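Quiz preparation item.
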């Protein structure tokens, strides 16, 4: 199938210990660690959990208790922030160490261009075997995320209710792959992987709407939006039901991920293993005034889990601020390779202070944002955020919210620098009807 692409430039734009403890939480025994690298080699495993809220691990009764238990015995970053509140831009930041305004992927539908060096390309050039299992269409190879991978499994198995687009889907004719199948494929990749240096990326999608699709009665975000717009008195109960279904899905992911972590533990001590688990964004359930994700930069949408299980990283809660761009630097450090991008190596001791930055995806046209009270805001333009001194500041070149008065001008200037980079960076977007229809079926609009 031929995809119509559009390129836009500045002129065309309007503007041994930690891992052992963590795996022990899963009830698995490890052989004593050797004094040197295990004979089998080194594995680095990156797990990205689509649409996972921070509180899925951190509340009193987490919906992912197995991962939460592992996090308590690994390095658990309490203040991790996603680069955006949508899938493709954050994953581009995870793999390049660049912010969205630097790598040119600002919203779903845009392509990570070949010119951008990914951590996977760096690993591959250094002799690492690289494999991936991705679970949803926004990470299909046509969007540029397969760069540097020996094996890239993006054959999706499950449909959504997509109406007229159902007969025109490419990529196997489906939208995503459930968590059980993702883990099955990841385990098969481990069986097939070659060499003594291996990198595996595993992506899970089930927490994304529709909520409850790991069961029998899923709920779409549209039900919440419709109830809010009509000011239905049953909205609070509907929100509670949606969150319950969402938790059901994240518990299913927890069980599937547990199987992968168990396999990694069983392969010890032949492999020194490093695991990083994080999310591309969270999800709003009215707690920030809205629903879903991709529209705002509120904590429910961009404050995410980040867990590192590695003998190179001290176990314990980490209070230093971290961001999506730090993952690439950390993976390369674990591989013994020079870091790239603008992130910092999380295997090192926390700095005296750290910051995180991000942006809201842009819209080609003003986009409606439905609030809990039934009102509708029209979103347009670009918006950035900075986490400084432990607080999040959101704004643009004209105004900022949440900033101390003495720092407002400084942050406006900083956002101006971001905006200048954004306007100067060429982008590439797939605009063929099939791709756009697929993205719209998942709730993403231009």
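Solution:
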């Amino acid at each position: 199938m031929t995809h119509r692409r559009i390129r836009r430039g500045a002129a065309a734009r309007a503007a041994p210990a930690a891992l052992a403890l963590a795996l022990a939480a899963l009830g698995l025994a490890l052989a004593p660690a050797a004094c040197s690298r295990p004979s089998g080699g080194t594995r680095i495993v990156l797990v990205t959990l689509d649409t996972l809220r921070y509180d899925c691990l951190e509340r009193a009764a987490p919906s992912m208790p197995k991962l939460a238990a592992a996090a308590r015995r690994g390095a658990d970053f309490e203040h991790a922030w996603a680069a955006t509140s949508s899938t493709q831009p954050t994953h581009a930041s995870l793999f390049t160490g660049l912010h969205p305004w630097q790598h040119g992927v600002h919203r779903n539908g845009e392509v990570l261009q070949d010119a951008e060096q990914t951590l996977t390309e760096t690993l591959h050039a250094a002799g690492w075997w690289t494999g991936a299992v991705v679970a949803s269409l926004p990470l299909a190879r046509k969007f540029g995320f397969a760069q540097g991978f020996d094996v890239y499994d993006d054959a999706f198995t499950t449909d959504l209710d997509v109406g007229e687009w159902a007969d025109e889907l490419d990529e196997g004719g489906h939208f995503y792959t459930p968590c059980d199948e993702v883990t099955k494929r990841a385990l098969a990749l481990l069986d097939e992987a070659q060499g003594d240096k291996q990198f595996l990326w595993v992506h899970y999608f089930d927490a994304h709407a529709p909520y409850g699709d790991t069961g029998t009665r899923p709920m779409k975000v549209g039900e919440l939006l419709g109830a809010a717009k009509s000011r239905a008195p049953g909205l609070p109960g509907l929100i509670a039901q949606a969150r319950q279904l969402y938790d059901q899905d994240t518990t299913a992911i927890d069980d599937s991920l547990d199987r992968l972590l168990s396999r990694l533990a069983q392969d010890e001590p032949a492999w020194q293993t490093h695991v990083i688990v994080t999310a591309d964004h969270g999800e709003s359930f009215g707690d920030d005034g809205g629903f879903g994700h991709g529209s705002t930069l509120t904590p429910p949408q961009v404050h995410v889990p980040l867990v590192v299980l590695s003998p190179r990283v001290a176990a314990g809660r980490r209070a230093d601020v971290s961001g999506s761009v730090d993952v690439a630097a950390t993976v390369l450090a674990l591989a013994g390779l020079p870091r790239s991008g603008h992130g910092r190596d999380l295997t090192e001791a926390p700095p005296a202070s750290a910051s995180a930055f991000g942006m809201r995806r842009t819209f080609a046209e003003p986009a409606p944002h439905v609030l809990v009270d039934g009102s509708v805001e029209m979103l347009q333009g670009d918006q950035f955020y900075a986490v400084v001194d432990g607080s999040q500041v959101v704004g643009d070149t004209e105004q900022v919210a949440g900033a101390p008065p003495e720092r407002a001008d400084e942050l406006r200037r900083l956002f101006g620098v971001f905006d200048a980079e954004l306007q100067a960076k060429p982008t590439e977007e797939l605009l063929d009807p099939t791709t756009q229809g697929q993205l719209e079926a998942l709730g993403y609009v231009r």
